[in-house]
């Protein structure tokens, strides 16, 4: 019942965000301006944007397999891609992108991987992603602050975005640094929110946590330097995603003399709307995009069209394409029933 309500809420938020963005474009630019802007779009750049979002997913699957390989549990690349797309779909439809990781763990169970091992890979991948994003974010804020952080609001949002990334990374890392305390806290939280069958769920979670730490010890024994390939794939994954705004602007004749600044701006947008507690950071993402990219591409006749297409590639495409990979995906209740 709760899961059904969450899906309905997510669907309402997504539809509302689409309507608001379309109405904003209509009333701000007007139909004539929108039509004239669309007519001058360069289709080759739009195809390049589609290719970049595919690269984002592909590098994500490579980073997942890079971690599994260290544990000697490599799966087929096509299966790793399915796991990645499952995460992309559920991240898009859940608030603050919180639903992707648990579903990836369940998805990997379909390919014969134990929940503890899958959990360790997913959590470690999340840590690596946060660390890499934080490093790129610190570079981006250093590189772009003079150009983009001139207004106090934008500057504050950029700093808060980086600070949040630091906090999330530390919280996740604390699970590894303080295993016993983290385990007690997690068990208490599960017990508090699951009054019904709490003992059974805690016992199952307890086994998964132990399996997670066993898997992480393998990473330490094999050498943490073996995580470098995964970090490189994550960096390429993020850069591919953050290059999409520049390509979409270019499709409509947008010109900037500093491509690195454009990619840095996209990184800042991602950090800023990362803490909006709505599916896809609805409305917050569009507002951050307009605030950051507006000063960079002043020769665009209708920036609202760029915002819409950017969201099509980075938010709606993962929902549409990701849904194709979750058609036959078993839910947690179905998995528990068959075990």
| Contiguous runs where pLDDT drops below 50 for at least 5 residues | 331-339
Major pleated sheet: none
Q: Specify the structural class.
A: mainly alpha
Global morphology: globular
- Beta strand count: 0
Percentage of β-strand residues: under 5%
Report the mean per-residue pLDDT as an integer. Answer: 75
Describe the structure concisely for a colleague.
This protein is mainly α and 339 residues long.
Explain the overall architecture:
This protein is mainly alpha-helical and 339 residues long. α4 (77-93) packs antiparallel against α5 (100-109) and α8 (179-193) packs antiparallel against α9 (198-222). The relative contact order is 0.16. 79% of the residues lie in helices and 0% in strands. The radius of gyration is 21 Å and the shape is globular. The chain has helices spanning 2-29, 31-39, 43-70, 77-93, 100-109, 115-148, 152-177, 179-193, 198-222, 228-242, 244-251, 259-273, 284-293, 303-324, 332-338.
Descriptive labels:
disordered C terminus; mainly alpha; 339 residues; globular
Give the helix/strand layout.
Elements: H1 2-29, H2 31-39, H3 43-70, H4 77-93, H5 100-109, H6 115-148, H7 152-177, H8 179-193, H9 198-222, H10 228-242, H11 244-251, H12 259-273, H13 284-293, H14 303-324, H15 332-338
């Amino acid at each position: 019942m709760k899961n059904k309500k969450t899906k309905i809420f997510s669907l309402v938020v997504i539809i509302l965000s689409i309507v608001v963005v379309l109405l904003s474009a209509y009333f701000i630019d007007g139909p004539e301006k929108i039509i004239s802007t669309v007519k001058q779009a360069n289709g080759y750049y739009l195809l390049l944007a589609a290719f970049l979002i595919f690269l984002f997913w592909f590098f994500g699957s490579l980073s997942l397999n890079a971690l599994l390989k260290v544990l000697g549990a490599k799966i087929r690349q096509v299966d790793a891609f399915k796991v990645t797309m499952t995460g992309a779909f559920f991240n898009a439809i859940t608030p603050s992108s919180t639903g992707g990781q648990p579903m990836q763990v369940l998805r990997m169970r379909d390919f014969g991987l134990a929940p503890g091992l899958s959990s360790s890979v997913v959590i470690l991948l999340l840590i690596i992603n946060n660390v890499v994003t934080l490093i790129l974010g610190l570079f981006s804020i250093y590189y772009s602050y003079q150009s983009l952080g001139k207004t106090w609001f934008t500057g504050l949002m950029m700093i808060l975005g980086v600070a949040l990334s630091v906090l999330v990374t530390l919280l996740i890392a604390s699970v590894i640094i303080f295993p016993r305390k983290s385990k007690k806290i997690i068990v208490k939280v599960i017990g508090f929110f699951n009054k019904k069958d709490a003992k059974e769920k805690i016992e199952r979670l307890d086994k998964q946590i132990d399996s997670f730490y066993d898997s992480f010890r393998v990473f330490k024994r094999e050498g943490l330097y073996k995580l470098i390939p995964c970090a490189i794939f994550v960096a390429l994954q993020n850069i591919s995603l953050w290059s999409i705004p520049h390509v979409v602007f270019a499709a409509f004749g947008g010109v900037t003399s500093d491509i690195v600044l454009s990619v840095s701006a996209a990184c800042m947008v991602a950090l800023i709307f990362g803490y909006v507690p709505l599916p896809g950071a609805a409305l917050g993402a569009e507002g951050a995009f307009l605030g950051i990219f507006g000063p960079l591409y002043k020769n665009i006749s209708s920036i609202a069209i760029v915002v819409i297409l950017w969201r099509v590639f980075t938010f709606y495409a993962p929902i549409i394409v990701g849904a194709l990979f979750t058609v036959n995906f078993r839910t947690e209740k179905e998995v528990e029933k068959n075990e």
